[in-house]
Structures are given as C-alpha cells and as structure tokens.
C-alpha cells in the first residue's frame, strides 16, 4: 500500500496537530542496509465509534511507512462510522461492515487476511503516534526472532489531555501472569510476530475482555518480547470503553486465565485485592459466579453467604427500639 500524506487525505475542519495536520517522517523505499521494510499488518475492529475512528484511521495511514497493510473490520455500525471509513477507502487494504461475533472475532477475521511479518490490532478509540511503525521495524530488524515488540502508551482523555503513561514491564510468562502488578503490556503499543500468532492459533474467540492478556501469555511460551522506551500509541480512556464499563467481567476473565495456565496463587491474590475494593467486590462475585462456573470450586469465597446490599429501615428501627 502506498502511504498517503496529509495533503492526500480528506480535509478535516477544526482539527489540528496529530493526526490531522501533522504526519510522520516519510521513510525511503528500503531500509538503510538495502533490505525491504518488514510488512506490518494492522487491523482496526470497530462498532459505532464514529466519534473516534477517523483519528484512528489517520494515525495508521500517516505513518509514512512503505510496507503497510491496513484492515478495518466494522461490525455493522449505524452511527456514521461507515461514511467515515468510506472516505479513506483508497488507502485501506480491505474493509467490511457486517455483523460479527464480537471484537475478538473481528480481529481474527482481519488478521486472517493479512500477509505481513508483524501483526497488531488498533481499536477504533486508540491511535498510533508519529513514527511508531518505524520504531517497530527498527526493533524487528535488530531482533527478528522475537515473538513481540512493545513500547509505551499514553493514556489520554477524550479531549486529548494526558492522564498517565504505561510502559511495558515484566515480559516473561511468569511475570506477565501477574498481570498489571509485575508484568504488563498496554495493547495498542504491542506488535507481535505473525508466525507465532498463527502457530498458537490466533486469538481465543471465547474471550471478550482479556483476549490480549491470553495472547501475550501464550506468545511468551514461544519466545521473547523486545521492549523500547519509545511511546508508540495513545489510548483514549472513556466511560463507554469495555475496559471501563465492564471492569468486573474483565477481571473475571483474567482470573480464569491465571488459573487455566497454572497460576492459581496469583489468581487468589488478585481476588483478594479486588474484594478489598467495595465498589468492585459485589460485581466481581457476580461475574465469577455467572461467567466462570468451572472454577468455582477453586474460589471458596464464591460459596460464602452474601450479606444484604442494604439494611431495610424497619430493621434499623427494631434494633434501636
């Protein structure tokens, strides 16, 4: 795919900066040693994300990268997303808007079409930062046998304010199993080897929240990750995002996966930490009961009698009489 410049892409109104009026450095046709740039395949799964998807698309197209393959998998949006995608049709390798079986299925469907050596997905409320693909290619050139290449990620508000920065850490399987506390990779800033992805069978479509954690764990069994201090992506943190709106289900899937891969002690610690948060404890119990019944016997707290959510006023009156 030939990379476009800002001048090539559709004009936007009242938008400045990256990725509206700024672009990445345009790279030469070949790497400095004469080798071709590794092909990088990016998939954007999306459903009703018209507010964010244009910035996502532009952040990929404006990488100035000579060997990019880009797929957009829309789940049949009805909010104007398709009109936005259609504006960029000339620069997208392939896109579709049709019902799917969820985000994980959409990603697998896109990557099933991909021919690159390096894979990733970029959700439609996230962005690549300028020159991100160059930094990934540079890591690949130095360590082509790695299973993944990860960098930092800005977490930003919907209006673009920087909230915090997450850097990759603890990239062995035992460290990653202690998810977030010892090991962590923020998904938009992680790229992975196509061959390793295919070898392990891609993403597990039974998972809807922790499919990235599951993928990182399985890839870690196949080889090593490489990390850089470069910030590669930005993730928009908003209330409608699954990681925010359905946190209990996300934690429940993570706990189930820790147990699945033999890290029961880490799962127990995670449960203990979560149960200490009043805002999450009831939701976690419910999520584990309804979604993770096969592991109930390993989590004794699930069998404890539930205290009432609130005490009726009549009971308080009787006690004080």
Written overview of the protein:
- The protein is an alpha/beta fold and 321 residues long.
- It has 2 domains: 199 residues, Spore Coat Polysaccharide Biosynthesis Protein SpsA, Chain A, CATH 3.90.550; 57 residues.
- The protein has 12 helices and 9 strands.
- Strands 1, 2, 3, 4, 5, 6, 7, 8 and 9 form a 9-stranded mixed beta sheet that branches.
- α9 packs antiparallel against α10.
- The radius of gyration is 22 Å and the shape is globular.
- The C terminus is likely disordered.
| CATH topology type of the largest domain | Spore Coat Polysaccharide Biosynthesis Protein SpsA, Chain A
Main beta-sheet annotation: 9 strands, mixed
Q: Write down how many β-strands occur, each being a DSSP E stretch of 2 or more residues.
A: 9
Oligomer: single chain
Named CATH architecture of the largest domain: Alpha-Beta Complex
Give the CATH H-level superfamily of the largest domain.
Spore Coat Polysaccharide Biosynthesis Protein SpsA, Chain A
SSE string:
EHEHEHEEHEEHEHHEHHHHH
Classify the beta-strand content into a percent band: 15-25%
Number of H/I helices: 12
Give the helix proportion (percent range): 25-40%
**Uncertain stretches:** 303-321
């Amino acid at each position: 795919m030939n990379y476009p410049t800002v001048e090539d892409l559709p004009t936007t109104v009242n938008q400045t900066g990256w990725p509206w009026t700024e672009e990445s450095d345009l790279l030469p046709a070949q790497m400095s040693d004469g080798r071709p740039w590794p092909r990088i395949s990016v998939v954007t799964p999306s459903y009703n994300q018209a507010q964010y998807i244009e910035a996502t698309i532009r952040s990929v197209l404006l990488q100035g990268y000579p060997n990019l393959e880009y797929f957009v998998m829309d789940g049949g949006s009805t909010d104007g997303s398709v009109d936005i995608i259609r504006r960029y049709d000339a620069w997208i390798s392939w896109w579709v808007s049709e019902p799917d079986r969820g985000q994980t299925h959409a990603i697998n469907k896109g990557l099933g079409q991909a021919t690159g050596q390096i894979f990733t997905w970029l959700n439609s409320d996230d962005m690549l930062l300028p020159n991100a693909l160059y930094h990934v290619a540079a890591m690949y050139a130095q360590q082509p046998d790695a299973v993944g290449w990860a960098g930092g990620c800005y977490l930003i508000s919907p209006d673009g304010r920087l909230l915090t920065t997450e850097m990759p850490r603890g990239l062995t399987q035992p460290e990653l199993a202690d998810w977030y506390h010892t090991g962590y990779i923020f998904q938009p800033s992680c790229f992975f080897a196509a061959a390793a992805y295919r070898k392990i069978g891609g993403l597990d479509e039974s998972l809807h929240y922790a499919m990235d954690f599951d993928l990182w764990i399985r890839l870690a069994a196949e080889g090593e990750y490489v990390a850089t201090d470069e910030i590669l992506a930005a993730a928009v943190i908003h209330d409608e995002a699954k990681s925010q709106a359905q946190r209990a289900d996300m934690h429940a899937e993570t706990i189930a996966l820790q147990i699945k891969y033999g890290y029961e002690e880490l799962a127990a610690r995670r449960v203990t930490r979560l149960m200490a948060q009043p805002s999450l404890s009831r939701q976690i119990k419910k999520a584990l009961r309804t979604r993770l019944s096969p592991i109930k016997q390993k989590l004794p707290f699930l069998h404890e009698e539930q205290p009432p959510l609130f005490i009726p006023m009549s009971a308080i009156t009787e006690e004080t009489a």
